[in-house]
Write a sequence for this structure.
């Protein structure tokens, strides 16, 4: 009898609260000025006793569709705060709870994200351990969540690198800023309105005693700001994309429009922005959920996990399309959430592995629809020069990258006497790693060869590290490793032929004067920077006309140009001494270089590659 009486007593206030809230929200729904208020779950839920009225929800997560406990867990049948919050999750979406929160509706996503490269950081760990001499295999699989603190590399990773992964725990549902890190699902899908930001700050300032009435929304509105926190570091692709290059300047340039001082006080200089950025495209217009959240497989390096290709949109063949009715249920749901035209046909990717939901065909015309503002951008076919025989091995970015960030001098040292922050343990400890660099350059990248699935492709590279590594007071190592780079600085107009064929940086020799002597028929190179411990100029990948192109890279499947490739590139460079890019001779070289050589006139310059070969090493290095 006592138990029934208790239930009866508790039931009365719940019923009263429920009736009150129904009447209140009935009134609010009729008031046009208060339409942003949304009913908070069922009237029988005790959550509304404290958290009402609440607004700000996205349509898909509106309380009339899901309950509070669907995301936050807890107990919505009791009025006592402690009991109601006993099993509550204040920040749903962290990977530690995503299987119990988000994945209840979005099944399988949690598993994909757990295996994604954005969560494991496998490549960063493999390369870092390789440099410290703790890992020979650059393709080893690692997971940042399993990283110990027993070696120099592990200490370095935990102190300098381990914050930029999607599994980094978010302890408060804060708005996204330039310095946001991690948060699992909320890292990308959490959004605050301007009023929501003000309300959240009041909540923080009141030491969490002033309960907010505005809930952040969870939606497909994934802006470039969500990506910025992590991707403005390392390769700096977030800043590159907008046309900003990091400098070594101090933050005294805040009023100069050509410079941008970030919240962490780094100073960036204005450069050429990516053409896709100037057209209004955001990150997610190219990188879909499989690029970002993973496809269920584990990958050793970032480039292996990215599926999008330039030729998905810039193609010459007939487009492969799919009708809406043939899409998967998950794809149909996304199309409807984005309110896209279901009468359009959706294009398949180049290898037809997936459907590009924002790339459509309407009235026999192909378009990309931007996901943020539904801007309609006609797809452009590649230039005829892109499909010429001479360019079959070239990636699109090889000619269309306008610049890449490059640092050619870094000094990393360990200071055992000062405190450093452990980014995984989230606590201070003795010992800190210090990194200093100079010579931050924004220029055309170096080119090299990537082997994948038995096929060689020429791609862009940058110094991954040209570094003096001081592990302790007595031990200092020198490392020269170049890394494949996707700079995200694509230009509509391709670079000139000379940018590759007469450019010592592109060939891997470093900066300097690369000149052809018409009297001796030889190429000569004078380096700008002095040689380092390995007898190469500070910014070089390989020596001038030398066959030793093996190693010195952050990947096992990449290399610098072989001796034969260097010779062929400079043979074309010899012809370009007189013939312009758009000349008839240049076009014949693009179609069939060997025939063009046979047809040359007696007055043409002659390059003698044999006389240019270094005596140090004539042995050819290829895969």
């Amino acid at each position: 009898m006592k138990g029934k009486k208790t239930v009866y007593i508790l039931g009365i206030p719940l019923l009263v609260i429920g009736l009150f809230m129904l009447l209140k929200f009935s009134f609010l729904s009729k008031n046009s000025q208060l339409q942003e208020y949304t009913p908070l779950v069922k009237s029988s839920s005790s959550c509304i006793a404290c958290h009402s009225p609440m607004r700000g929800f996205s349509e898909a997560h509106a309380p009339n569709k899901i309950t509070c406990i669907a995301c936050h867990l807890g107990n919505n049948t009791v009025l006592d705060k402690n009991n109601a919050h006993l099993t509550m999750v204040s920040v749903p979406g962290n990977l530690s709870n995503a299987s119990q929160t988000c994945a209840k509706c979005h099944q399988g996503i949690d598993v994909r994200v757990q295996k994604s490269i954005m969560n494991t950081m496998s490549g960063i760990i493999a390369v870092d351990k390789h440099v410290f001499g703790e890992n020979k295999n650059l393709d080893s699989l690692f997971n940042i969540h399993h990283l110990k603190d027993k070696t120099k590399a592990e200490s370095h990773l935990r102190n300098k690198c381990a914050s930029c992964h999607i599994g980094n725990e978010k302890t408060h549902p804060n708005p996204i800023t330039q310095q946001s890190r991690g948060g699992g699902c909320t890292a990308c899908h959490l959004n605050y309105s301007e009023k929501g930001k003000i309300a959240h700050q009041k909540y923080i300032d009141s030491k969490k005693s002033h309960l907010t009435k505005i809930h952040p929304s969870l939606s497909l509105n994934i802006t470039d700001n969500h990506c910025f926190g992590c991707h403005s570091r390392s390769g700096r692709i977030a800043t590159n994309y907008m046309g900003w290059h990091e400098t070594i300047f101090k933050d005294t340039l805040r009023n100069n429009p050509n410079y941008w001082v970030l919240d962490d006080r780094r100073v960036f200089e204005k450069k050429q922005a990516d053409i896709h950025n100037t057209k209004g495209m955001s990150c997610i217009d190219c990188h879909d959920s499989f690029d970002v959240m993973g496809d269920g497989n584990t990958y050793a390096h970032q480039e292996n996990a990215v599926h999008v290709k330039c030729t998905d949109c810039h193609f010459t063949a007939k487009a492969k399309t799919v009708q809406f009715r043939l899409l998967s249920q998950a794809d149909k749901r996304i199309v409807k959430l984005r309110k896209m035209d279901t009468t359009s046909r959706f294009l398949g990717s180049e290898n037809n592995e997936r459907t590009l939901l924002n790339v459509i065909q309407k009235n026999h015309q192909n378009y990309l629809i931007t996901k943020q503002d539904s801007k309609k951008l006609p797809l452009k076919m590649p230039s005829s020069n892109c499909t010429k025989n001479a360019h079959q091995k070239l990636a699109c970015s090889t000619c269309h990258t306008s610049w890449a960030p490059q640092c050619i001098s870094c000094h990393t040292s360990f200071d055992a006497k000062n405190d450093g922050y452990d980014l995984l343990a989230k606590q201070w400890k003795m010992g800190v790693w210090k990194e200093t660099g100079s010579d931050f350059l924004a220029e055309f990248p170096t080119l090299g060869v990537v082997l994948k699935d038995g096929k060689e492709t020429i791609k862009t590279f940058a110094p991954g590290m040209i570094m003096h590594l001081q592990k302790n007071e007595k031990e200092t190592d020198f490392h020269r490793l170049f890394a494949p780079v996707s700079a995200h600085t694509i230009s509509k107009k391709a670079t000139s032929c000379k940018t590759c064929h007469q450019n010592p940086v592109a060939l891997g020799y470093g900066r300097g004067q690369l000149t052809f002597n018409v009297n001796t028929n030889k190429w000569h190179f004078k380096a700008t920077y002095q040689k380092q411990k390995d007898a190469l100029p500070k910014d070089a990948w390989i020596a001038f006309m030398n066959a030793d192109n093996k190693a010195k890279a952050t990947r096992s499947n990449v290399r610098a140009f072989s001796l034969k490739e260097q010779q062929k590139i400079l043979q074309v460079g010899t012809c370009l001494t007189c013939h312009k890019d758009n000349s008839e001779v240049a076009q014949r070289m693009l179609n069939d270089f060997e025939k063009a050589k046979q047809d040359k006139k007696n007055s043409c310059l002659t390059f003698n590659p044999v006389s240019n070969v270094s005596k140090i090493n004539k042995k050819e290095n290829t895969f």
